[in-house]
Amino acid sequence: MMKKFTFTRSVLFSTIALVSAQSFAESGFPNHQVGLYMRADAQANQSDNSADINGDEDSNRFQFNYLRLNFKGQLNDKTSYRIRYRLDKSLDAGNGIDSTGPGVNYAYIDRTVTDNLKVRLGKQYFAGVCGREGDYSGQDVYKYSLTCDVNPFYRTGVALMPSFNGQSFVFSAVNTGDETSNQDEFGYAASWYGNLAEGMFEPIVAYVYFPRTEQKGAGGAITAKSSADSYLTVGTRFTKDIVQLEADYMRADIESRGTAEDESYDTLALQARFFLMGGKLQPLVKFETSSYDDGALNNAGADGAFDRNAYTLALEYYPDHGKEGVDWRMHVAYWQTTDDFDSAATKDIDTSQLLLGFSFNFTGA
Question: Could you give the 3-state DSSP secondary structure of residue 219?
Answer without folding.
Answer: helix
